[in-house]
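> example.struct
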């Protein structure tokens, strides 16, 4: 439609200037179609191909002669547009077809081997949460339907006040049965923080990760301008990680608004059990001592090391920054788990029976001491001694 309008404007909508363009366009199409059929007969040599080649060859030559005559005689009357544009468009379409063929060949490589590839033993579903609403509730519902080994909500913290509001909302709606992980993002690079979080989960070579991103669908031009497209960037970058599947869970705002006009519905479905998460605690810091009993009664002195140098069944003392915090249920009891990182790696610190610890917040620096165990394929320290700095 745009090209037709432009053509009418350039020719002044004069029929005597449009007829040459029409004529050369028609005979150019005849030439290309007849030449294509001639090539088909030469390539496939079907029964009666010689007669077909003669008919189509003669048709291609005659159409070409007419097209050349029109192009020469009417070149200054607008035929030059066809002479210039047709070769360019043909070249573009040929290259586009080659691109499609290349992609098809790549997608067909080792298909049987990909189908028969071994399946990882664990499935972890991560739901990226900005704030608690119906879109997030729908994504959590989809996550539960996948029956994963672990389901957790992940919030990338760029505003600690907003993170506190989310934690409070999580508590008020009784969502303690589902872990809420707060991941520190001091540089506000959400995509990088999300990829780092997902890569840490999948790094054990035993876990398949499914990332669910609530996708709020709005009607109208203004809504598309007002709401950013952060989800698109997250899908594009996280999906490049191996053994990670990213799915957007659409929530149509207009349909829900229409339904709410006639029927009142709760803002968030409340699962049974639990009285909230991330409750404030007044526990005092436990001092680090030179030698203590480990979780299994071991009296071995702790060895100071970087987190990257930690090994299974060693009693170690490590210092790092709290990068992520979450509370999740275990056999009906709350469990506070935080991820401690330094420049060499990360390790989980697990506090059984705790919902929160005063001072143990995102970005805090602490020293932890305890026995290193294997927890669902990841190194962790259970109920460590710790000291906040």
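> example.seq
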């Amino acid at each position: 439609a745009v090209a037709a309008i432009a053509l009418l404007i350039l020719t002044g909508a004069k029929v005597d200037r449009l007829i040459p363009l029409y004529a050369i366009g028609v005979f150019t199409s005849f030439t290309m179609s007849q030449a294509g059929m001639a090539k088909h007969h030469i390539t496939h040599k079907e029964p009666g191909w010689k007669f077909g080649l003669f008919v189509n060859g003669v048709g291609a030559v005659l159409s070409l002669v007419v097209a050349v005559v029109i192009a020469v005689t009417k070149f200054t009357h607008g035929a030059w547009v066809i002479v210039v544009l047709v070769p360019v468009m043909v070249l573009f379409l040929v290259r586009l077809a080659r691109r499609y063929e290349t992609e098809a060949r790549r997608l067909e490589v080792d298909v049987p081997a990909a189908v028969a590839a071994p399946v990882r033993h664990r499935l972890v579903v991560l739901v990226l949460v900005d704030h608690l609403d119906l879109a997030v509730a729908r994504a959590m519902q989809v996550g539960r339907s996948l029956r994963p080994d672990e389901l957790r909500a992940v919030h990338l913290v760029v505003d600690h006040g907003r993170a506190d509001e989310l934690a409070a909302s999580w508590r008020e709606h009784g969502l303690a049965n589902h872990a809420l992980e707060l991941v520190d993002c001091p540089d506000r690079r959400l995509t990088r923080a999300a990829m780092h979080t997902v890569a840490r989960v999948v790094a054990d070579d035993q876990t398949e990760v499914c990332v669910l991103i609530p996708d709020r669908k709005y009607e109208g031009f203004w809504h598309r301008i007002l709401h950013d497209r952060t989800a698109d960037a997250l899908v594009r970058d996280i999906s490049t990680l191996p053994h990670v599947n990213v799915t957007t869970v659409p929530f149509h705002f207009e349909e829900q608004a229409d339904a709410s006009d006639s029927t009142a519905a709760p803002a968030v479905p409340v699962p049974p059990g639990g009285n909230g998460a991330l409750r404030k605690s007044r526990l005092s810091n436990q001092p680090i001592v030179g030698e203590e009993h480990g979780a299994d009664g071991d009296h071995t002195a702790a060895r100071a090391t970087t987190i990257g140098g930690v090994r299974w069944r060693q009693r170690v003392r490590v210092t790092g920054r709290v990068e992520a915090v979450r509370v999740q249920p275990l056999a009906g009891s709350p469990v506070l788990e935080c991820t401690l990182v330094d420049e060499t790696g990360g390790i989980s610190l697990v506090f059984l029976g705790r919902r929160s610890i005063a001072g143990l917040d995102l970005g805090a620096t602490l020293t932890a001491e305890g026995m290193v165990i294997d927890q669902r394929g990841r190194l962790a320290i259970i109920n460590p001694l710790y000291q906040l700095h």
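> remarks
Confidence is low (pLDDT under 50) at residues 261-299.
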